[in-house]
Amino acid sequence: AQTVTQSQPEMSVQEAETVTLSCTYDTSENNYYLFWYKQPPSRQMILVIRQEAYKQQNATENRFSVNFQKAAKSFSLKISDSQLGDTAMYFCAFMSGTSYGKLTFGQGTILTVHP
Amino acid sequence: NAGVTQTPKFQVLKTGQSMTLQCAQDMNHNSMYWYRQDPGMGLRLIYYSASEGTTDKGEVPNGYNVSRLNKREFSLRLESAAPSQTSVYFCASSGWDSPRGTQYFGPGTRLTVL
After folding, report:
1. Residue B43 is nearest to which of A47, A95, A105, comparing CB atoms?
2. Domain coordinates in residue numbering, chain A
3. What percent of chain A is predicted at pLDDT more than 70?
């Protein structure tokens, strides 16, 4: 079974600065997908960014980018120019290419952006 | 488009009571999912339905049943609620026209079992 580990229970950053959230996973598969979801205090789960394992290029979405290291099974999220609205719980998630739809989530990292 | 909707938003039950959590999506998605979120454990898959007419167990199915009523609706039933089922429950959906693997979540139901 796959596991996803987020080793940072809490992180904080000053507004406008950059922060990196860590995620590692364990799998024996070669074809899979990785995701970062954001959960603000409203509780709504919002997709931040998605990475396909067969693509070597790191995904980017505006201020959000990932550092995908397939050999190391590492998938970190970098948030640039942090904004107060980025304050949220962030979840890393894994989906096997053969078990379509079954997401395995990490424990989450609470990110607080300070003014 | 409302996306994924869930009812109720909050519920308090006594041990042994039953209830059904409702979920509906208006995105014409084939697949639907039920997760529970507990502190420090992220979200865990309870049941999923890959397509209308099919359901399968996820990681933590014990104590729950599901019904895929039609393509839009997927309900989760607790037959005899236990305090261990106190949690936040999320419904999600995904479709063939979504970027592969991407799931869209409802707003969640906070359930407390006393």
Report:
1. A105
2. 3-114
3. 99
Pairs of residues, one from chain A and one from chain B, whose beta carbons lie less than 8 Å apart: 57
What pLDDT is recorded for position B21? Answer: 97
| Closest residue by Cα to residue A115 from A14, A31, A43, A44 | A14
**Superfamily in which the A3-114 domain is placed by CATH:** Immunoglobulins (2.60.40.10)
Does A47 touch chain B if contact means CB atoms closer than 8 Å?
A: yes
> In chain A, what residues touch B42 (CB-CB under 8 Å)?
4, 91, 105-108
In chain A, the percentage of residues whose pLDDT exceeds 90 is: 81
- Please answer whether residues B77 and B89 qualify as being in contact, where contact means their C-beta atoms are separated by less than 8 angstroms: no
Please state the φ and ψ torsions of residue B96, each to the nearest 5 degrees. Answer: -65, -25
Report in angstroms the alpha-carbon separations of B61 from A37, B43, B57: 23, 13, 6
DSSP state of B35: E
The answer to whether the Cβ–Cβ distance between B42 and A105 falls below 8 Å is yes
User: How many Å apart are CA B7 and CA A112, to the nearest integer?
Assistant: 30
Query: In Å, how far is A17's CA from the nearest CA of chain B?
Result: 27
pLDDT averaged over every residue in chain A? 93
DSSP A85: G
Mean pLDDT (whole number) for A13-31: 95
B58-83 core/surface letters (b: 16 or more CB in 10 A; e: else): bebbeebebebeebbbbbbebeebee
CB-CB under 8 Å, B105 with A44: yes
Percent of chain B topping pLDDT 90: 83
